[in-house]
Amino acid sequence: MATTGTATAKRKPVFVKVEQLKPGTTGHTLTVKVVDSNPVVPVTRKARPGSSMSRPSQPSRIAECLIGDETGCILFTARNEQVDIMKPGETVILRNSRIDMFKGTMRLGVDKWGRIEATEPASFTVKEDNNLSLVEYELINVNDQ
């Protein structure tokens, strides 16, 4: 069975800047610095009566991390083992990240389809006065008139 070179060729990642992120978008690859990381206390959920969950669920570790590049910054939601990578001062590459909306504001996240890689320290300084997570968005339904 012969395979052609184009069938297995991977796309080169297109790196974007923080200021280019928009609500509801996915598939972002960007290089960012971690400015700050704050653990979030998880809310423990009680098992519903009659549910088949007999074993207690493993509590998930979550941290809100302020990340950014020379164009701006945004809050990143790190989950479980991602918390260990997202330490203040680290430079990371986020691959296939997505924008989640939380209480009308943007949060960046990486799910099971994405990846976080530690990389060499970047030379840029984070522009902290352009925090995209402070911009509140409102969903407006447009009716065809």
Automatic annotation (TrEMBL):
Q: Tell me the InterPro entries matching this sequence.
A: NA-bd_OB-fold, OB_Ssb-like
SUPFAM superfamilies referenced in this protein's UniProt entry, alphabetically: Nucleic acid-binding proteins (SSF50249)
Specify the signal sequence span: none
- Domain Single-stranded DNA binding protein Ssb-like OB fold positions: 21-118
The species is Brassica campestris
Tell me where on the tree of life, at the top rank, the source sits: Eukaryota
Q: What is this protein called?
A: Single-stranded DNA binding protein Ssb-like OB fold domain-containing protein
Q: Name one Pfam family in it.
A: OB_Ssb-like
